[in-house]
Amino acid sequence: MPITKMATLRLLLLTPMMSLLFCTPAWGWQAPAPLSMAQIEALIDLQGMPDAALAGEIRDRHLAFSLTRSIVDALRSRGAGPQTVAALETLLPPPPTIDQFYADRMSVPVGGSATLRWSVSGAERVSLAPGFGALAFAGQKVLQLTQDIQLILTAEGPGGSTSRTLTIVVT
Asked: For labelling, which of 30, 59, 77, 156 has a CA lying 20 to 30 Å from the CA of 67?
């Protein structure tokens, strides 16, 4: 007898909760097991589970893996509904914070220098464009300028990315 989508849905969701039905007060209450990535993917792929139900399962059972913005985006691309995505997003860590990003001068003469300073928290990677690449989480850099420059500091982490822009004008 083939397993139907509904039977698969019941197995994925109800099996971990079956222990609650047979639990006596002497054993105490146990929360349902957290959802694995494979379970969430299977429930999205079934397309028979209502979006609100999967969102409720995520809120009630939490996750058995570390969630990142890229995982949420991948699940959205796979077909996760808006309520499921919203439930996942509440579990994301906050995006990184750019605590400081400034230059000691916003205008310099041709060939003049400006000192750029930055500090970032909650990031895994920090980069400066155009062309500077990866940076430490905090630091400074002296720039010798012959033309205007627009700098973009980007901090990336599990909760997403944050960018700030700074323009230094050469007079």
From this structure: 30
DSSP string, 70-138: HHHHHHHHHT--HHHHHHHHTTSPPPPEEEEEEES-SEE-TT-EEEEEEEEES-SEEEEETTTEE--SE
Half-sphere exposure of 54 (CA within 13 A, CB side): 27
CA dist 170 and 109 (Å) reads 5
Q: Tell me how far apart the alpha carbons of residues 10 and 150 are, in angstroms, rounded to a whole number.
A: 55
Spatial distance between the Cα atoms of 57 and 39, rounded to a whole number of angstroms: 11
Centroid of chain to Cα 94: 8
Strand (E) or helix (H) holding 163: strand 160-170
What are the residues whose beta carbons fall under 8 Å from the beta carbon of 37, sequence distance 6 or more? 63, 64, 65, 71
CB 81 within 8 A of CB 89: no
pLDDT tens across the length of the chain (171 residues): 455 555 555 545 544 444 444 444 455 666 678 889 999 999 888 877 888 999 998 988 888 888 888 999 999 999 999 999 999 999 988 999 999 999 999 999 999 999 999 999 999 999 999 999 999 999 999 999 999 999 999 999 988 999 999 999 999
Strand 113-121 to 97-103 pairing? antiparallel
pTM recorded for the entire structure? 0.69
